[in-house]
Amino acid sequence: MPAEALLSIRDLSIHFGGLKAVDGVSFELGGGRILGLLGPNGAGKTTCFNAISGVYTPTGGDIFLEGRKTNGLPPHRMAELGVGRTFQIVRPFTDLSVRDNVIVALGGDRYRGIFKALTSWRGREVRQEAEKILATVGLLDLAERRAGLLPIGNLRRLEIARALALRPRILLLDESFSGLRQAEIVQIETLLRGIRDTGLAILLIEHNMKVAMALSDRVVVLDHGRKLAEGPPAEVSADPAVIEAYLGKGESGRVA
Fold first, then answer.
1. Helix (H) / strand (E) containing 43
2. Structural contact between residues 228 and 222, judged by C-beta atoms closer than 8 angstroms
3. pTM above 0.85, yes or no
C-alpha cells in the first residue's frame, strides 16, 4: 500500500446469504483527492460506504485507514478515527437551529448524549467553531434558522457541515447533489473542491454522471458488486464495458 494512501480497500466482499453485494473490490484514496464511486443501481456503492463507515463488517477482504485495519469497528469508532459521512436522505434535528445541528456534531467526541452536548458544551469556543464551519459551507447567515425549514439545497450543505464537524480526514458523500438545481450543483462543486484543497480525502457516490466525472480526480465503477473499471474520468467514461453497464448493449457514446 502506498504511504500516501489514507484509505485502502483490499478485496472487499460483503455477502448477504447468497447475494454478493460487494465481491472482491479494491481501490485506494489519498489525501487531497476526490474519488468517485460510481455504478448503476444495485452495483454495491452504498454497501461499500456502509463497510467503510463501520455499519457492515466485511465478509472478506480488508479495510485500512492510514495502514490501520478497521474491519468490524463500529460507526462511532470510525468517526473518531476520522471518517465523516453524509447520507442520501438528509435527516437533521429539525427542531434545532442550523447552528445547534453543527454544535451537536462538534460535541460528539465529548458527550454520548445529545442533550448533554447542548446543555453542557455551548460555550463561546464551540459556537465560534460551529460558525466557522457554517461559513465554510455558506450557511452562516442561516445559523439561527430552524433546520426543518431549510430547502433541500441548504439541507445538503448542512449535512456536509455536520460531517465536517467530526473533524474528518476522509469524507464519504452519498448523493450530495440529489434534487439540486444547476446553480446549487455548481455551488456545492466549488465547496467540495475547496474542501479537497485543504487536504481532506473525499469519496463520493453520485448518480449525476456529468457532475461525478467533472468533480472526481479518479473514478471507480462497480457493476453487480464487482469493480468494472478504474482510472481518470475521461478514460473510464469511454470504456465500452462502462458504457454497456450504464446504457445497455447496442448503445454507443460516452457515459458523461
1. none
2. yes
3. yes
